[in-house]
Amino acid sequence: MTISSFQPGQSHKITALINVSDVEHFVGLSGDAAPLHTNADFARKAGFEGPVVHGAFLIALVSRLVGMHFPGPNAVLERIDLSFRKPCYAPCEVELNASVRQISEAVATIVLDVTISDASGIIASGKSWHRILELEPVS
User: Fold this and answer.
1) Which of 29, 71, 80, 90 is deepest in the core (most CB within 10 A)?
2) Which positions ≥6 away from 96 have C-beta within 8 Å?
């Protein structure tokens, strides 16, 4: 997609399943084995229902949304500002939604409003900034 393909308010949603094994793999990849994410007793003593899914894992799902779906493979993520509203617990299904907030054709950039929700409401929300490459995507 080129920058002219986007309209303010245009949006796209994807869903993602988060399993306990996904979180375990993320611990292995990131090296973040903090007890809040890996130890149920610790998490409960800290006031949570159980181990909390890493915020960075949720940001990785935003990367999936913007890099693979919307705006898609021609988008370069330049910045993301995401606020975590409530904890996310595995297993669960989350919905990621991105909506075009602003377009600058002069510099081929767009700003998206991003939310991550589960069945009980919004987990995280914020904005992401992207440069749109004017190239044919490689498949």
Assistant:
1) 71
2) 13, 14, 15, 16, 61, 62, 64, 65, 114, 115, 116
Q: For the chain, what is the domain count?
A: 1
Backbone angles phi, psi at 24, to 5 degrees: -60, -40
Give tens-digit pLDDT for 81-139: 999 999 999 999 999 999 999 999 999 999 999 999 999 999 999 999 999 998 765 66
Tokens of 104: 């600058």
CATH number of the structural domain spanning residue 31: 3.10.129.10
Instruction: Examine residue 138 and state whether it is found in any structural domain, yes or no.
Output: no
Q: Quick check: is 139 in a domain?
A: no
Distance CA 65, CA 93 (A): 15
